[in-house]
Amino acid sequence: MTIEYVDAGEAFDHAKLSNMPHSAPDVTRGVNYERILQARSESQNWITYYGDYDGKRHSLLDQINADNVKNLKVAWIHQASATGVIASTSTYAFEACPLVVDGVMFVTGWDGWLWALDARTGQQLWRYKHAVPVDVTLCCANVNRGCAVANGKVYMVTQNAQLVALDATTGQKVWQKTIGDVRAGESASIAPLVIKDTLITGSAGGEYGVRGHIDCWDLETGEQRWRTYTVPKPGEPGSETWPADGEAWQRGGANHWVTGTFDPELNLYYAGTGNPAPDFDGEVREGDNLYTDSVVALDVDTGEIKWHYQFTPHDLWDYDSTMEMTLFERDGKKLLAHFDKNGYMFVIDRTNGELQHVTPFVDRIDWGTISRDGKFLPRKYPDKEGEPCHFFPGPAGAKEWTHASYNPNHDLFYVPVADVGATATRRRREFKEGMPYWGAAVEVDVDNMAGSVSAFDSHGEEKWRYRLDMPMAASTLSTAGNVVFAGTPTGEFMALHAETGEKLWSFQCGSGHHSSPSTWSLDGKQYISVPVGWGGWLEGIIPGMSGQGHGAALITFSL
Fold first, then answer.
1. Cα(216)–Cα(228) distance, rounded to whole angstroms?
2. Where's the Pyrrolo-quinoline quinone repeat domain (predicted)?
3. Which sequence positions are flagged as catalytic?
4. Cβ contacts of residue 246 below 8 Å, gap of 6+?
5. CB 3.0 to 4.6 Å from 55: which of 50, 154, 215, 378, for a disulfide?
6. Rg (CA), the chain
7. Of 291, 218, 217, the residue nearest 252 (C-alpha)
8. Model-level pTM?
9. Which domains does the chain have, with CATH numbers?
């Protein structure tokens, strides 16, 4: 019997459900590629996901500084007043990074939400709710990490693998395109990235045995320009790293579900890829399994992979490498820094993919070792059916998807570190489309854990560490005011001194942090905005805090 897929239909027009203004100033009309190229120079705004193409998450604003941050107060709070309803093995969370353009804020949420807010007051200008089926298949939480703006539009992906363009003044849908096949287990949570006259997105769903891909779309029409699969088919470069017989490559994972970075001079987009499928069970996918757990450098005009570097060959621990690829320069060289789930910091020549050096950034690593020059030696992994194997770091990694920031003036990366282990017991599972394709039962440690915000220079030397009892699970934000902002799982939003790690200020937000704060200014006043809403794949990060209240607020601070 053939079961037809039933579309969710049209969502309610939320402009008809309240007496809100339902319109916003036309501030994104002038946002284009040339302006995004200079994004950091207009630090009064935050017009793209990382604040700039290089992924540094560093702002030139300095009105809020190490001397006066102790006076920071709440300016306004936006209450999302929404509860995640999509059925999932995990819960909803507020994981977005707010964008701000000339007094208007755009922020996404779970369940297909997007809000446009007055950045002065937090008043809602309009809201959009996408029609997402409540039974859509999601691996690791009902979340969305952000949007993109350009040419009078706002762009977002949805949990049911759609790319949507909205009129930035009204929230009305302009066009919609399909990214992936929800029936096979594909979904989407990435913040799109505007490059030239296109938009870059990626897919999610590797835990369901899908084949990852990166897509390029026309900004105006939504027409697909190119698609690059992150697992090669037989005969393509890298296919020799998969079994020659069988169909392992067709369900190999390697999804790109966190926004990449871009070097306009090299015309390269740096995309991190996820784990292979099935997780943990390597016997059914012998070989290094390219391009899983890798950075791939793509020509943005064609999608061609120019070079790659694999951080965890033949991954048996669920060590995705989707986290940010931070672009920086040192001694006249164009470099890329990456803090991987496997516990190591990698510095790579971003022109050609040549490794410069590798350094551990977390205390406990016993799954194996990677030498300074990149020699990879596994030691512990779940290789026997039904036999438990404990290892550090656990599958959430020594650093989850949330982002480090980088202050080029101090040559310091501020890293949200998780020091927690897990036990994996291999369980062979036959592939069935649309069903979870995990190769083990996993239990993350409920105690014996720690976390920190740690500062490393570009050579991998740790300069300071602010210690926490819980693993960090939120992005950091660096500013020219010599301050680093970071949120904790227990709800504390804090400011640390960028050179020493001294805590200068904190505020209890009432729910844990799992998002990316941004900073901006308006009418000569600097603000810090942070989405607050604990949730997500908690059983993989901090299972002991699964029962904590979620929250659904965006809190903005100023002096």
1. 9
2. 46-354, 461-528
3. 318
4. none
5. 50
6. 22
7. 291
8. 0.96
9. 14-558 (2.140.10.10)
